[in-house]
Amino acid sequence: MSEHASQRSEPGEAPANPTGPKVRLLALIAVVVLALDVVTKVAAVAQLEDRAPVEILGGLVYLQLVRNPGAAFSLATGYTWVLTIVAIAVVVVIVRVARRLRSTGWAVALGLVLGGALGNLTDRLFRSPGPLHGHVVDIVSLLAPDGRVWPVFNLADSSIVSGGVLLVLLALLGRELDGTQTGRKQTAKGVEPAGE
Description:
With 196 residues, the chain is mainly alpha-helical. It has six helices and three strands; from the N terminus they run H-H-E-E-H-H-E-H-H. The chain has a three-stranded antiparallel sheet with strand order 1-2-3.
C-alpha cells in the first residue's frame, strides 16, 4: 500500500494532513523573517543615510547603509535582473516543495531561506532604480567598516545563509523532506543500509 493510500481517512473522518502544521511553520518563519528584514531596512535608510558607519560592540560590528546592486559579496553587480529572476525561482520552488513537507527541520530551513529570498526580492522589485533592478539595502559590516573584512549584509542574507547551512546539515544527517531518515527509508523498502 502506498504512503498516500495509508494516510487516507475513513468515511466520516476528517482527512489527515500531516503536511499542514509543517507548512504553517515554514510560512510563519518566512513571514517573521520578511517582516524583520523590511523593518530593519526601513530603519537603516531612515537613520544611516549620509552618515558615517556606527561602531557597536567595541568595533566588532559596524552599522552602515550600502545599496548593493549585486548578490552576496557584491557578485553579479551588472546582473540585478537575473538575480531577481533567480530569487523568484527560489520562492516558486520552495512553495512547490512545501506540499511534501513533513519534517520540522526542513520547515525551519526552508522558512529561513524563503523569508530571506522574499526580503531581498522585495528590495529588487520596489527600491530604486526600478523594478527588477532595485538595489538591496545592506546594513551590517563585521570587524571593520565598509566591508573590508567581511561583505556588508542584511537580515535576509543571514537568514538565507542560516537556512542553507541547516539544509546541508539535514542532508548530511540523512533527514528527508518527508520526515524520514535515509537509512530507515531504505530498510522499510527492503534494502539494507550500507555497512550492515
